[in-house]
Design brief:
InterPro entries: DUF1400. By secondary structure, this protein is of the alpha+beta class. It has one domain (23-170). It has nine helices and six strands. A hairpin with a 2-residue loop joins strand 1 (28-33) and strand 2.
């Protein structure tokens, strides 16, 4: 009987966690290329990532910064396969802190405070449902109202994440 008492809160937590309800998730992405930046709603960016449909403001912004929409869409939707449990362990280690420090220079909080912690949570939350991480999911799961993204360095950061996280299955903890 005592096991059932502890099982109910655990099942409620798991149900809420995996239900798709995002609490304190990012509402805005501030996308910066060079000196120019644009506020884009997360749903607007998600629609673009899923369908390729550009909003007028995103189309104008990409034209202004001379970026092809396909390039942005590709980096937003590329998957990195990763075991969420191993990912969480690695991100809480010294090498994980170094990786988070590098990535949080490109994907960060507006104030630069708690960027690593926010990124760690967004990465793990993104990996949990299906064992894959896509950048659009990280932005959707970022736990602050706004997330700043250095667009010029997105491909570089994706490649770094892919390289490091691709090695995780070979790491024994």
């Amino acid at each position: 009987m005592s096991h059932k008492i502890y099982l109910l809160p655990f099942l409620m937590f798991v149900g809420i966690f995996f239900s798709g309800i995002r609490v304190n998730a990012a509402e805005w992405v501030v996308l910066k290329y060079g000196l120019l930046f644009e506020h884009i709603s997360v749903p607007e960016l998600s629609t673009f990532a899923e369908t390729g449909e550009l909003s007028a403001s995103l189309r104008a912004y990409l034209r202004m910064v001379n970026k092809q929409p396909n390039e942005l869409r590709e980096v937003l939707t590329k998957e990195i396969e990763v075991d969420p449990i191993i990912l969480a362990k690695v991100l809480n280690s010294l090498p994980g802190e170094i990786l988070l420090a590098q990535v949080s220079e490109v994907i960060r909080t507006p104030t630069h405070r708690a960027s690593r912690e926010s990124l760690r949570g967004a990465l793990v939350t993104s990996a949990l449902p299906d064992g894959n991480i896509r950048l659009i999911e990280v932005l959707e799961n970022y736990p602050t109202p706004a997330v700043y993204v250095e667009g010029d360095r997105l491909v570089e950061i994706y490649n770094s994440l892919n390289l490091v996280l691709g090695l995780l299955p070979t790491i024994t903890l």
